[in-house]
Amino acid sequence: MMQWMDDSSGKIIGFVASEKLTDDDYAEYFIPPLEEAIDEYGDVRILLKFENFEGWTAGGAWEDLKLWPKLETIERIAVVGETTVEEMFAWMGKIFGLLSGTEVRYFEQEQIVDAWDWLRENPEELYREREATPAPR
Prior knowledge:
By secondary structure, the chain is of the alpha/beta class. The protein contains 5 helices and 5 strands, in the order E-E-H-E-H-E-H-E-H-H.
């Protein structure tokens, strides 16, 4: 099951993934809100919170996502989990991030505020701060 998180706003979108995800979850509850945000904001950042997660049903949702034409518009993904299985999914996400250019980080359940904060960071401001800071000698 995939549910929208109320803390979502603007280009920052959060979902709770629980139990077993199906192709319908992906097609009905994940992609449409992403496409709406992309149409409005250009790029998106995603928080995926896993609770009582049991995996995916057999199907092409993962393959569809990898081939999704708007994949490059995802700037960051914060994965929030409670088990080592979910941490493993985060590592898979990091590999995905390397291939797609998306920045992916894993957070424990108690770090969810940190995950939202990381997604809300303004990368342009961070870049300017780094440029303004003199390099160590």
